[in-house]
């Protein structure tokens, strides 16, 4: 249990990096210049690494469902991700950035909550 929860700060950093990268790749400057960032970025290696990280993140989140004190945060993370994906799949590039930012900030909040559980746990 503690090992799974100990990974929460790592995933918190991952979410923050993901927010920064989504702004850089799909930022306001790219939207204003009418560039389509899906054409040439990211490269295949980065995309493969990112995909593996996202799959690991999903497995970690699902495994949190088996920890009684973490079920609410795990369900929230899964729900936020599913809703965000559904909204992003039907949105224009301008709205994808807004949805990604909002979705990421909600997930960061859930990961901060999980990290606080670690800090409050008796040693």
Would you mind describing this structure in some detail?
The structure is a single chain. The protein is an all-alpha fold. It has one domain. The protein is 78% helix and 0% strand. The chain has 6 helices and no strands. It has helices at 2-6, 8-25, 28-32, 44-64, 71-89, 93-120. α5 (71-89) runs antiparallel to α6. The two termini are 13 Å apart.
Give the mean pLDDT: 85
Compressed to H and E, one letter per element, the order equals: HHHHHH
Number of helices: 6
The rounded distance between the terminal residues' Cα atoms is: 13 Å
Rg over CA atoms, rounded to whole Å, is 16 Å
| pLDDT < 50 runs, ≥5 residues | none
SS-derived structural category: mainly alpha
Helix content: over 70%
How many domain modules?
1
Proportion of strand residues: under 5%
How would you describe the shape? elongated
Largest sheet: number of strands, sense, barrel closure? none
- The number of distinct β-strands equals 0
Features:
about 120 residues
Q: How would you summarize the topology of this molecule?
A:
Elements: H1 2-6, H2 8-25, H3 28-32, H4 44-64, H5 71-89, H6 93-120
Helix pairs in contact: 2-6, 4-5, 5-6
